[in-house]
């Protein structure tokens, strides 16, 4: 197959989205809409990818470096948009043209289209499918020989006849052209339609009139016609995209207990024998190893988990958990949190920008921020690393095999040596040497027989009640 030039039409205003964000930059399962078609073009082996955008160049910041942006100065229709990219089209190579708001077209589908186009020796080959309800789509009108005569748009009353509206084969909005034939025909496209625009499908009858073949590549995938014009369309496309993501992961050995309640972005990777419980969301560049158990009700954002990790009822963002780690329930791992092999962060524990050593446990009700903890340590309930002095952040260093008592506050910067201990209720402000016990609390004062003597004047004078 000859590597095609792929032209993606993305200059539409997207006014029906009712959004300050350009339509094609709205996210779909973790990627902008436009990224789906760009990725499909790359997967199809495109020699060049050209995106046609508007004069505001709003799409430019999100495009990969190797993608070319062509500008359509005025919104004059799809044929005019292709003309805006004419300088990037190779007359001797096939050209694939598709809309940027039809994100479910795959690289495999584009490769098959180009292959069918070359086999047919056609000037143009269009991707079509049959819909039970083709309302709103351009209808494919075929001649007696089965070849495509034209595509009739149905956006406005008067664009199509009643007979043409009965046709259920629709234009998928994806075309393969011979580059030279396309460029020659674009100059003859007129605007005799209800909207006064230059429609790309009008190239097809021009090519037929020149005796060139216009073929159709019919596919049994109605999803290629799922375009996004408004937020309702986006929700429908998202449902299908999510179904495909789930199907791919389950085919690879992942158990998704309830797909209907599980959200997984397109870029997420999950290893075999991992179980994803209901009401989990996995976003961004998340990587999950094999044999893990995620959820229920867990959120992972740009997080990396090793093999055999368990994370019930927790929220992790830009965190890393090595093999055998345990997080939660109800834990919060913030950016820079690193749990090494077999480490445990338990119930109602928050960790930020900290390295928790192998086998170390922070079981419950603690905040660990800007800390380095060695292997095999155990920090009691209510442990706090006081890392902020009001102006700067400071680090706490806790060694290996440290036993931290409950309700211990480490006031950074402070270092606790290997095999050290801290007493419960301590506020550690000075370094604790290896093997030492740090005690930092006031002495307890006990008033004997206080209950019997509480009405005694001496007790009242010594321990006055607060008014």
Automatic annotation (TrEMBL):
Residues 253-467 are annotated as: N-acetyltransferase. Keywords: Acyltransferase, Cell shape, Cell wall biogenesis/degradation, Cytoplasm, Magnesium, Metal-binding, Multifunctional enzyme, Nucleotidyltransferase, Peptidoglycan synthesis, Repeat, Transferase. Residues 232-252 are annotated as: Linker. Mg(2+) binds at residues 101, 229. Acetyl-CoA binds at residues 381, 387-388, 424, 441. Its cofactor is Mg(2+). Residues 6-128 form the MobA-like NTP transferase domain. Binds 1 Mg(2+) ion per subunit. NCBIfam families: glmU. PANTHER family: BIFUNCTIONAL PROTEIN GLMU (PTHR43584:SF3), NUCLEOTIDYL TRANSFERASE (PTHR43584). This is Bifunctional protein GlmU. The gene is glmU.
């Amino acid at each position: 197959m000859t590597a095609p030039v792929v032209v993606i039409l993305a200059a539409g205003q997207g006014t029906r989205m009712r959004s300050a964000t350009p339509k094609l930059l709205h996210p779909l399962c973790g990627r902008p809409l436009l990224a789906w078609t760009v990725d499909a073009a790359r997967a199809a082996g495109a020699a060049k990818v050209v995106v046609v955008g508007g004069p505001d160049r709003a799409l430019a910041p999100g495009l990969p470096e190797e993608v070319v942006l062509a500008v359509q100065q005025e919104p004059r229709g799809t044929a005019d948009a292709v003309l805006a990219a004419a300088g990037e089209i190779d007359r001797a190579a096939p050209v694939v043209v598709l809309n940027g708001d039809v994100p479910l077209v795959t690289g495999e589908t584009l490769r098959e289209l180009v292959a069918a186009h070359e086999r047919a020796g056609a000037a143009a080959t269009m991707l079509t499918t049959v819909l039970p309800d083709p309302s709103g789509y351009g209808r494919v009108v075929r001649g007696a020989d089965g070849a495509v005569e034209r595509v009739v748009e149905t956006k406005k009353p008067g664009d199509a006849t009643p007979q043409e509206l009965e046709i259920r084969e629709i234009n998928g909005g994806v075309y393969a052209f011979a580059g030279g034939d396309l460029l020659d025909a674009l100059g003859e496209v007129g605007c005799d339609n209800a909207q006064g625009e230059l429609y790309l499908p009008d190239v097809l009858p021009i090519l037929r009139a020149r005796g060139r073949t216009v073929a159709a590549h019919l596919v049994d995938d109605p999803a290629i016609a799922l375009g996004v014009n408004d937020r309702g369309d986006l929700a429908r496309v998202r449902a299908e995209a999510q179904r495909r993501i789930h199907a791919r992961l389950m085919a690879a050995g992942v158990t998704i207990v309830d797909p209907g309640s599980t959200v997984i972005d397109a870029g997420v990777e999950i290893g075999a024998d991992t179980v994803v419980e209901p009401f989990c969301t996995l976003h961004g560049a998340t990587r999950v190893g094999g044999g893990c158990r995620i959820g229920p009700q867990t959120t992972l954002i740009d997080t990396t988990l090793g093999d055999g990790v368990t994370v019930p009822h927790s929220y992790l963002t830009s965190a890393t958990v090595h093999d055998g780690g345990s997080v939660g329930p109800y834990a919060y791992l913030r950016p820079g949190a690193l749990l090494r092999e077999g480490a445990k962060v338990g119930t109602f524990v928050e960790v930020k920008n900290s390295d928790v050593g192998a086998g170390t446990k922070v079981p419950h009700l603690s905040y660990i921020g800007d800390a380095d903890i060695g292997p095999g340590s155990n920090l009691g309930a209510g442990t706090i690393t006081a890392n902020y002095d009001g102006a700067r952040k400071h680090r706490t260093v806790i060694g290996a095999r440290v036993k931290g008592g409950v309700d211990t506050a480490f006031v950074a910067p402070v270092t606790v040596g290997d095999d050290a201990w801290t007493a419960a209720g301590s506020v550690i402000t000075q370094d604790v040497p290896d093997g030492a016990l740090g005690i930092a609390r006031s002495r307890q004062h006990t008033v004997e027989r206080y209950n019997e003597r509480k009405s005694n004047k001496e007790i009242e004078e010594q321990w006055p009640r607060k008014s």
